[in-house]
Amino acid sequence: MEWHFNNDMPIYTQLVYQIKFAIVSGQLRPGERMTAVRDLAAEAGVNPNTMQRALQQLERDGLVYTQRSSGRFVTEDTCIIDEAKKALAKQYIDQFIDSMKNLGYTREEIMELLKGSCEEDKNGNIL
Q1: Which H, E and C letters describe 81-124, residue by residue?
Q2: How far apart are alpha carbons 41 and 38 in whole angstroms?
Q3: In the predicted model, is pLDDT for residue 89 greater than 90?
Q4: 48, burial (CB in 10 Å: exposed 0-12, middle 13-18, buried 19+)
Q5: Which single residue of 20, 55, 75, 100 has CA 20 to 30 Å from 43?
């Protein structure tokens, strides 16, 4: 997993986001065993306590779970993953809409821009 951090948010929040993104995008698959906390922390270049805190948040969110003596795993409940994916998509959409409104676009103009930007290839995939 490749880690990217910026100074705009706490590292803990960025870790939660990046791991959540890896889960909802399929980089980490349902039921997949996760790398140990210390190894993840070393890989990301963060304090193990910070990584532990991020994983505990993901556990509270239901995206990961711990099996005693076996480690942490990505949830196998695809409904939870789908809900997290929709929530993340909504955040992206809200940010986009806010940016467009700040540029002076109306709702209708935003919809037209989106329609014009969503070109499809011959298989129906958005380019």
Answers
A1: HHHHHHHHHHHHHHHHHHHHHHCCCCHHHHHHHHHHHCCECCCC
A2: 5
A3: yes
A4: middle
A5: 75
